[in-house]
Amino acid sequence: MLSSITRGRLHRLTGQFHEPDREATYRRDIAPRVRRESSLSLLVATLIFGMFTVSDYYYVGAGTEFHLLLTVRILVVVSCLALAFVLGRWGGYCRKVWLHALPLWILATGIILLVPLRPESLATQVTAVAVALMAFYLLIPNLLSVVAIASLYLSLGFLITAVMVADASAVVALRISLLLIMTNAVGFFALLRLEKLQRQQYALLQEERVQNQQMTQEIAHRKSLEAQLRRVAERDVLTGLNSRGHFMERAQGLLQRAQSGKSPFCLMMIDVDHFKAINDTWGHSHGDRVLATIAETCMRSLRPQDVIGRFGGEEFIVALPDTGPEDARTVAERLRQKVAELPVREEVPDHRVTVTIGIAGVLEEATDLPALIQQADRALYAGKHGGRNRVVIHQDVGEEA
Ligand SMILES: Nc1nc2c(ncn2[C@@H]2O[C@H](COP(=O)(O)OP(=O)(O)OP(=O)(O)O)[C@@H](O)[C@H]2O)c(=O)[nH]1
């Protein structure tokens, strides 16, 4: 099915694209194929032309005429073979159209020259000319104008020679003319159709390529948008830590791995003490900077395999794989101390920022993440209740760190 893309874009008589640029691109794209096919067709046609030496001998026998015929055939064959080689290597279809036309003219001249040398076999030669014309039209691809002109030259040249040299009668000349007109017409329209079909196919292919390219670009754009969205969803804007949702996903994975590998796993809830007072006294922007500094401090103090996220407000959450409660306490203590020593004098002058940390460890196999969070939260609450700036493990809720 041909789309509207190609309809009306091809010249009626040449089958070429109306737009010169498009035609030039088309020719450039098919140049290697045309070169190959032209060279091969020429090779075959030349060899067939040469093979007719046998029939020359049959018609004229060994003698001067035969030698002349042989010379013509050898000249045509040698020059055409050389041109077939040149075409195959350098026959640029766009710039060197004359190179494609030349062998056709040589072949046509060779065929015309046979008439005075073998006038008695005119009938056979008419058939040979008709076959040669069809071969020109059908075997030489994508060169309609070149082929049409060469065919016209062969037809007229043959007709004139037949009348002038072989003394063809008016009736015979008329018959030859009709046959050649018919052969030319059939050949021309067959090649015209072929040229149009090939260009239509090419145009459709181009269109498809453009669409595919657009689709690829669209897919790449969407993928990059998706990645951007994912990054936004996974990160907390203020602190750069994992967002709550992303933390839950990652922590869930770590917990499952710990449970199936029967390795210890702990969860830490970190809450900034009296943070409301910081906001109220120095403003939200100062509060934000304090939160970001604490987040950075925590992140730097953890191991690469630990996962930290912002749980909400001034609360952070940490998953510690391969860590038992006592080791988690050590980590938490280190964190607590580092926060307490933070140089945040610029943000909150004369204020010592502290955090309270609640820890829960997996004791039973069935413990799930929400339960663990609840336990850590309870420990945190106990820590707040117990005076803040401390670490509390869930199993010893009520005790001070
Ligand atoms: N600047 C800033 N403040 C926030 C943010 N998220 C939550 N807060 C504030 O953090 C404060 C938390 O206050 P509370 O829950 O009363 O806790 P607290 O004052 O830290 O007291 P304790 O936790 O009991 O020690 C609230 O005033 C929130 O508005 C944030 O992203 N930036």
From TrEMBL:
GO terms for biological process: cell adhesion involved in single-species biofilm formation; negative regulation of bacterial-type flagellum-dependent cell motility. Gene3D superfamilies: 3.30.70.270. It comes from Halomonas urmiana. GO terms for cellular component: plasma membrane. Its cofactor is Mg(2+). Keywords: Membrane, Transmembrane, Transmembrane helix. The keyword Membrane applies. Its EC number is 2.7.7.65. It comes from the Bacteria. This is diguanylate cyclase.
